[in-house]
Amino acid sequence: MPTELHLGSGDPATATTDAVVIGLLPADGDGAPVLAAGCDEIDAAFDGGLAELLAVAGAAGKADEVTKVVTRGALSAPLLVAVGLGKPPSAGAPTAEQVRRASGSAARALAGTAHAVSTLGRIDLAAAAEGTLLGAYTFTAFRSNGDPKAPVARVDLLSDGADDAEVLRRAVAVGTAVRTARDLINTPPNALFPESFAARARELAEAAGIEVEVLDEDALAEAGFGGVLGVGQGSSRKPRLVRLTWSGGASPRAKVALVGKGITFDTGGISIKPAANMDQMTSDMSGAAAVVATTVLAATLELPVAVTATVPMAENMPSDTAYRPGDVLTMYGGKTVEVLNTDAEGRLVLADAIVRAAQDGPDYLIETSTLTGAQMVALGTRTAGVMGSDEFRDRIAAHARATGEDGWSMPLPEHVRADLDSRVADLANVSGARWGGMLVAGVFLREFVPDGLAWAHIDIAGPSFHTGGPYGYTTKGGTGVPVRTLWAVLSDIAENG
Ligand code: BES
Ligand code: MN
Ligand code: ZN
Hints:
Blueprint: E1 4-7, E2 19-25, E3 34-35, H1 40-45, H2 50-56, E4 66-70, E5 79-84, H3 96-109, E6 115-118, H4 125-135, E7 154-157, H5 164-186, H6 194-207, E8 211-215, H7 217-223, H8 226-232, E9 240-246, E10 255-260, E11 262-266, H9 286-300, E12 306-316, E13 328-330, E14 336-338, H10 346-358, E15 364-369, H11 373-379, E16 384-388, H12 390-403, E17 407-409, E18 427-428, H13 437-446, E19 454-459, E20 465-466, E21 477-478, H14 483-496
Parallel strand pairs: 1-7, 2-5, 2-6, 6-7, 10-12, 10-15, 11-12, 14-18, 15-19, 16-17
Antiparallel strand pairs: 2-3, 4-5, 8-9, 9-12, 13-14, 16-19, 20-21
Bound molecules: ligand BES, manganese (II) ion and zinc ion.
């Protein structure tokens, strides 16, 4: 069961609950950490000495720090959980991301607890709600014993703001969308393959009351989706192309096309990958998961923007039916591509999907994918690479940073295109040049985007899947990045066009 969130009210010091959560800030100089806003009643219940007491317990208010204090009757709750927020930007209040991360750390520390009250909602209700839902995330569908340690069952978020119920409802919807993406990513590749992924997408769409269309292998062949078919032909699990459409309601402000890479497992194909860490290629459909979840979210919250997700799904396998290095594929729309490396499969399925998505005449096109290992070489595991038309690219990268998901604008140098010249076809799927692999993939995709369309490509190879220990609201496995960035961009478009 996902953690239930409620609006809390009343005095946290006397609340009947298992634990109370408060925020802590680092000391200004030496000395005790500083209590964040919203803990006055709690501090009073400790006779104004709570910060000193926490300092004795070793608390410093650093990000990701959790200090548990047994209250022995000072509060009605038996346990106080103090979470560090880290240093706010100079002299300001903590940012939404600081509250989100602290709430995530608190939620993880509360595993096994039935009920908690959090004062962090008094700083930023939406951030506290999102952080709690994401930090409390677990994936246990494939454990025979269910939850080893059940996530906190219910958290009451105190809050001081206006319009609380609506703020909470929206934050829960956003958090739920991220969790949906995580669930899809974390589902193992023997359970989530093109046909079953398409079925899951259909269920999600129908539950949200939006249009869904699934092209199977025959329909793909009929329409000439040579990229999706080529990549998928080595697997007994045949490819799909899924389209979800949220109308945008009565008067949509704009029309946005979302495209996400849905490789349900990437062995590399005939250009096979090394065995080490190949299991992580279960996450090669993270872009698809994100655009499906975001489109459903747009419908749930009735965003006044028309959103269509176009999602190519295929499994990249080596076999006697697999596509080969040297093959030439005729893509949707007619361009031809020489395959020089079957492990550069994402760009092939995406090229088909981008051409299809652009046929609808969108105002904006955003594609996201676990496209290149080079993304991690350039930007590390937590910062997405954003490429595309200059203005829109920068707008998306700014939203990525504001949401805490993080992203950085990267160029698409003109000279790179010549490296993709092919001996026999319109272009090749990889270049012989060694450097800048993330940009090469972006330049390849640009060939399939109509001139003049505002578009962006978000490479999430690193940020989509977390292999280290949990921190803040980021748990192991699928992260759900970039659902919140996409949502921020769509919300911005709803408001500003
Ligand atoms: N799915 C991979 C990219 C990837 C690598 C995502 C590691 C997440 C973690 C993609 O299909 C791929 O194999 N890309 C190749 C491209 C190369 C053959 C030009 C790569 O990055 O090595
Ligand atoms: Mn690959
Ligand atoms: Zn891949």
